[in-house]
Please model this.
Amino acid sequence: MIYVDKFPVVGKFDGFGGQFVPEALMPALKELEDSYQRLKRDQSFKSELNGYLRHYVGRPTPLYFAKNLSKKVKMKVYLKREDLAMTGAHKINNAIGQAILAKRMGKSRLVAETGAGQHGVAVATAAAMLGLKCDIYMGAVDMERQRLNVFRMRLLGARVIPVKMGSRILKDAINEALRDWTANVRTTHYLLGSVVGPHPYPMIVRDFQRIIGEETKEQILQEEGVLPDAIVACVGGGSNSIGTFYEFLDDSVELFGVEAGGMGLNTGKHAAPLLRGSSGVLHGSCTSVLQDRFGQILPTHSISAGLDYPAVGPEHSMLKAKRRVQYDSVTDKEALSAFQLLSRTEGILPALESAHAVAYLKKMPRRFRNKLVVVSLSGRGDKDIETVVRALGIKA
Amino acid sequence: MSRISIKFEELRQKQEGALIAFLTAGDPSPTTTLKLVNILTKHADIIELGIPFSDPIADGSTIQRATDRALKRSTTPDTVLSLIKQIRLMSKVPLVILTYCNILLKLGVATFVKRFATAGVDGLVVPDLPLEEAGELLRATKEHEIDLILLATPATPHERLERICNVSSGFLYLVSLLGVTGARKELSPSARSLIRKVKNISKIPVAVGFGVSKPEHVASIIKAGADGAIVGSAFINIIEKNLNNEKRLLQKIDSFGKSLKAATWRN
Model:
């Protein structure tokens, strides 16, 4: 085995990752890592988690053969339907896992950040179900563009705290959540939603998302009898993609991660740290970061709030350096047209994040013509209706 | 002995605690920072300057806003370097630089330390660089003979506290509370017990910061046995209230600095 279960080594993915956090958080990170290492082998933890995943989240999610889309893109396309999971995105896999972990660690309160609101909704859901207090930090810009999810979180009993500092998006929400955690570290678990942040988060979130790839492998073998030629997933922080890819890292399957190209990589208005960033430290982790020549973090742009982040999980930085995963991008425009394509051909409204992965089908190398491709459909698009309708100029 | 260590020794003999004044360099502008430092050197024993970083996770909203103002005025590490050179022309006050990891890494740890040490900086605080990641910086600061000041908090376990005390030089930055920087009404009760704990472990001078914002706080920290008090956000609050009146700003900083320094006298 080259990749699976090999990293992180002492908190690092071949030099990426680490724990660049204030001293106040170091004991909490150690406590989290120790508890996680103990509980992940614990039978009662595993059966509690699996019970919820099956009966509450609705796993396994289907692997759907998209026959009409396949014709359009001239490939045999399967969609891994994370949009059909409880709350409408893959985020719930990690939220339930960490919420149970937090409860068993004796924490009574969860804080979390959210960009598109999908992670926030997932955490609010898990908190409601497990009886934990829940505060969600969300950038003021994101609260505006994803306000349906703000209503959902509030209806689920969570407090949604607007972040008006900095660029007022996901990055700033993580800053505030980290500050809150620093102040309340004894009673509170920080339920980070992506494979970013200080060790052990990139490992824990990945492990809770691995189920996407595990199911996909079993399902595709059952349907087709062979592994796919390629798998495509969108990359913001990178939890959906790492969760989908992980089980295939040691197989001969080509993996494509799609970053948010925004208005285009050459305009500077994008969120593609793997393609246009450089090595740096943000939110406790050494990874690819969009930064200026002095090390200040740059503003980002994407039509998709969930991808609008200037850094990426450290394991992705490693997988890029090792050339195991190929990273590319699609623009806002391409994502929007993929949103329409999937809606009209398959009757599925994808999240704008997931629409980036769908859009990439049209940009895939020619050698994949008529080949077997799996796309991870990370979430559903209900939350994005207002954004999409505005962007397309559709009238009621 | 470093300029910082010598200062603490001097103050000990005079029965005084150290007043360490923090400002974000470039807030509200580099020229005003220079004027503020000039005034503060009358009262403060050590000056700590922050190189602004866009995402300061150890800081509260006051310093985040100061950072935003400084970055709007295009304050870069080079701007701060030239400020330091100008301060060194007029004062021998011990100077500490505070900045976040990414600023150091972008320039290169060794280059950063070399440039700032050569310009006359005496110590460095990097709030998002814990012991485990500090190896390269530790080597560089040793080579250029400046202090690497580490932080400890009420959550730091005993054994870890010992290691931090052994590695930190110049002084130990004791975080008074669990949380981020920012003025508070009351001094955290955990500060006093933490000071005693460190004093039982190590001889390193101890300065307490985070939430220290009034002369009473300073007096109570010094009385509890600390060697210094670090005040930052309270100064920045004054800056923020007087953004359009520099003369008044300088007067206010002068009188507030004076009252804080008076609170460090042991008798």
Q: What stands out?
A: Chain A is about 40% helix and 20% strand.
